[in-house]
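Q: Start with the shorter request: fold the first protein.
A: Done. Sequence, then structure:
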Amino acid sequence: MTIGVVVFPGSNCDRDVRWAAEGCLDMPTRFLWHETRELKGLDAVVLPGGFSYGDYLRCGAIARFAPVLESLVDFVASGGRVLGICNGFQVLTELGLLPGVLTRNRSLHFICEDTPLTVASNRTSWLHARSRGDALTLPIAHGEGRYQCNNDTLHQLQDDDAIALRYVSNPNGSVADIAGITNKLGNVLGLMPHPERACDPLIGGVDGRGLLQALLG
């Protein structure tokens, strides 16, 4: 079973994901250059953090036209599992695989800190190992992590039980304290915190392991 990790010009967490998946969890990975269209043989795909295409225009706005993402849309439609972390979350909203948009932090400053979260939903296999209300801590590192959507979209997320994670102490002004959401089917998860940076007890704790292990769930 193999995990594909997309590499855009400007990605800087692709190797972090590979290190966590292979080094901590014994999950084989394969880098996917942004120009590829070949996703055969993959069980899941990760869109990592970073600054795809330099975050020109706005975060994820150029990356959403990458050839690999054309294939990703079909991959998701066929039930393939996709995890978007930080910039990857931004790309998923630009691509339309997840609703809403990520905007500048309320403070207008880049935030880098460990952040307490609660599990808002364990409806999908991403969080089956957790119970609703469980606490976990994951690091964040973003300047445009403020999740925004209109009231209709928020109500739809609530009706679909698609809000996966919430901030305990909202660091960026996200609506409804949202830190991560899934699509209605549940095979796509986008979140601003970095689970790959919390997979080693000596480096950032292990609260991120379950989310990465669920790639093969």
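Q: Next, the second protein, separately.
A: Sequence, then structure:
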Amino acid sequence: MEHQVYEQLSFIKIPIDEFLVDKFSAGGFCQDEARREIEKRYAGVLEITDKFNRQSVSYQLNKKEVLHSWLKYKEGFSADLVNMLLDEMGAKPGDWVMDPFVGSGTTALVCQMRGINSIGYDIMPVSAVSIKTKAAIHRYDTNEIKALIRDVEALSVPLNYSGCTPYIRITQDAYPEKNEKFLHYIAVWRDESEYSENAKDLLTLCIINSLERCSYTSKVGQYLGWDCRSKKVINANRLRAEKGQKLLPPKYVRDVILDSKETILEELRHVLMDIEIIQNSGNDNQNAAIEFMPASVLYKLPELEENFLTGVITSPPYCNRYDYTRTYALELVYLGLGEQEVKDMRQSLLSCTVESHSKINELKIYYENIGQRARFDYIYSRIKENAAFKEILSALEERKKNGDLNNNGIIRMVEGYFTELAFIYAEIYRVCKPGAMVAFVNDNVRYGGEVIPVDFLSSSFAEQFGFKVKKIYSLKQKKGNSSQQMAKFGRVALRKSITIWVKES
């Protein structure tokens, strides 16, 4: 496949004022001077672009993309967006680009197709399976995959089979009994088969990408949504009825809960077609390295050498309380994680849930152990100097006292989220070479009537560590507020942005 040349991100003439916030604190309840100051400071680099939309900064465009559609990862972004940003940074074959939050691996895979080396991190095992399987695209034996498909077609679970798919508390009764047994049976069959590791990995990814559609669950917001036909909801309603409580609504996550065997086969046929397309395309950049580590970037980035990255393209978990260990619980459990391992992973992820605890003491010990305590002290002192950040935390404390926060863990989450990201920004600056470009996709948020300008606040941290803020691209479509926020505090339109920072010479 020939590389498509993308134009530099452009902008359209929409009044910038429509995308700026005049009051960060609903009703003027809290001080907002520091937030208004950074809004004024970065208004001059804000551009409203027509070159990307909510589809390109999400998984939507990847649904039909060759290779990138192998894993439905709602929090990802499109290959089109990565190509545009690579063009804008002027990345060439042989350069190094980082994605500190790999997700489904779109940045790394687009880089590989263009002969660009990539380095990335992600603690979620789903990411490890995705990147390993997709990166092997040129190494698959299509005849072996065809034989695998024939064998899966012939699979039949014995009538007396007692095996069941493992579960933890939040995934119990997630599948119809037939699917539950088949998903366990095919995993055992896969492990005992004589197929190559590449073929087994491919089958694993196809199974993983099938789980949700074969279950009574759906990924919605912060948790798993449940179908009223599931045992979990049926039993919950029985107990509610006994207590005279209101029943859970008759909600269907999908019209038909799909058959697991047929869904896995559909996935296998789909990836086989993609493999044949790519292997016959003549585009083979296997020499481009993909260095992936299944680990937290917080504890790996500080060990990298200085001044070698051409750029960074990423989308971190948003500061929106979404818990990836719950929404991807089916996949995590299928990959072997137990109850405690899932809980531990929840704390290891970037702080974006109300259950997250501060990592600052762990970070201090880590930096001491690698002989970089002075660097820790420098980064942390700069974070604590940020006036807008201090104002936001103070405002949230005031909202807590006033009873405006629906969960007091929001304060700890926000503090941890930006503290951890600021450490990452500082270390990215160190490992970027002069002229490197960094692109972060993120959403602005609002809690307890207090707007947090994630894009401008992050840019202020980036400037503290040496970056120049080149552009802040914003979607034309602004983000809404929760119904609870609007009912109590009114509506404030929030930006969804791509911040572009440059390390100058």
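Q: Describe the second briefly.
A: The longest helix spans residues 409-431. The domain at 16-123+290-317+367-502 is CATH 3.40.50.150 (Rossmann fold).
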